[in-house]
Design brief:
Helix content is 41%, strand content 22%. The protein is α/β, with parallel strands linked by helices. The chain has two domains: 2-107, Copper Amine Oxidase, Chain A, domain 1, CATH 3.30.457; 127-361, Aminopeptidase (3-Layer(aba) Sandwich), CATH 3.40.630. The chain has a six-stranded mixed beta sheet with strand order 11-10-12-15-13-14, sandwiched between helices. The two termini are 38 Å apart. Bound molecules: zinc ion.
Length: 362
């Protein structure tokens, strides 16, 4: 039931789960394996170093793999999750016994060389993708005198100018009032081989009283939402998909999709946070206030699919009279663009510092 790959003990998860009395299901097209009983529900996706168990994703030291018609997952992490969920101890002796079951042939199976590992987040920050949200038939949120799509385009153009002057290679997903599908935006970013993806938006709430009270900027990374407010904001930003065309899409990300996204985006998470930290520093003490802690996470479809650090910036509330007024002035837009530009420059420095420390360690 166990075999060793790249120095890691892997377990034949299907046989193991079945020996523990779990129901198993393997979907070869989706490359997705699940096992469940009343105490534990876990799933694995081939090629991803994650186990998703009882609603929580845990990193494995090896991606799950298919060899010899069997699905192999990192034994140590898998067993410890089963131990907790099933309130059971797998003694080393038991393990050793199962190790003996592995025939030498089974343990040395042809497999492709592991991909070359470039330390995450060490790439030089050169190409910046600015994504002005919405556009064309999708106006985004509306204020008293303006629409979200106009404000974010104006700020994006100013930001492009600032960053270009600083020597960055800058691309806009749209530079005029046109509609672009949410999923197309990260695709463009990938095509352009971006190092950082910044999606610009304006926030909004309903109700006259709430509109007066609710103001401020907030930055988002793609991660499980921690509160209902952030979830609602993501739903609003995702809504365009259901309004226009694509009938199969939905405004929330399912647990399985989360699992796949998290596995894929793990690489970029640290740098998305690093950039968010810079935004928090440079937006401090501006005309627009901070909403809550200033940073959060939720399932923004527009960030899904970008193979680079990605942050969604809610510049302020278009539904708030003060915020809307400021975001519509030339001065306000310049100020917001300058703050993001400063954040990008300091983020670039932070990444360079990190590269240097890694070189010293070599
Ligand atoms: Zn928006």
């Amino acid at each position: 039931m166990l075999a060793k790959y790249d120095g890691t003990w892997m377990i034949d998860i299907k046989s193991f789960a079945e020996s523990e009395g779990l129901q198993t299901n393997w979907q070869p097209v989706e490359k997705h394996f699940t096992a469940k009983n009343e105490k534990l529900e876990c799933s694995f996706v081939l090629g991803f170093p994650y186990i998703f168990a009882n609603g929580k994703a845990t990193t494995l030291d090896q991606p799950t793999r298919l060899e010899d018609g069997k699905i192999w997952t990192s034994a140590e992490a898998t067993l410890s999750i089963f131990e907790v969920a099933l309130a059971k101890k797998y003694a080393p002796d038991t393990l050793k016994k199962t190790i003996k079951d592995v025939t030498p042939k089974e343990a040395q199976i042809n497999r492709p060389a592991p991909p070359k590992k470039e330390p995450a987040g060490t790439r030089e920050v050169q190409t910046i993708i600015i994504d002005p949200g919405h556009g064309g038939k999708d106006p985004g949120a509306s204020g008293k005198v303006s629409q979200e799509k106009e404000i974010v385009l104006a700020v994006a153009k100013k930001l492009k100018k600032e960053l270009s002057e600083e020597g960055f290679n800058v691309k806009l997903t749209r530079d005029k009032d046109v509609f672009i599908e949410l999923s197309e935006r990260p695709n463009l970013a990938n095509q352009w081989d971006g190092d950082l993806f910044i999606s610009l938006h304006c926030n909004a709430v309903d109700g006259v009283e709430r509109q007066k009270r609710t103001e401020g900027y907030r930055f988002y990374v793609l991660r499980d939402p921690e509160n209902e407010e952030d979830k609602a904001i993501a739903r609003r930003e995702n809504k365009v998909i259901t309004l226009y065309g694509d009938k199969d899409s939905k405004d929330e990300i399912s647990p399985l999709e989360w699992f796949k996204i998290e596995a894929r985006l793990e690489k970029y998470k640290q740098n998305s946070y690093k950039f968010t930290e810079q935004l928090l520093i440079h937006f401090d003490n501006g005309k627009i206030k901070k909403l809550g802690s200033g940073a959060g996470g939720a399932g923004f479809m527009v960030l899904v699919g970008a193979f680079m650090p990605a942050v969604l910036v809610e510049l302020g509330f278009i539904s708030n009279p003060e915020d809307e007024k400021y975001m519509n002035t030339e001065k306000g837009q310049e100020d917001l663009a300058a703050r993001i530009s400063q954040s990008v420059q300091d983020y670039k420095k932070a990444v360079e510092e990190y590269r240097k420390t890694l070189q010293h360690e070599k």
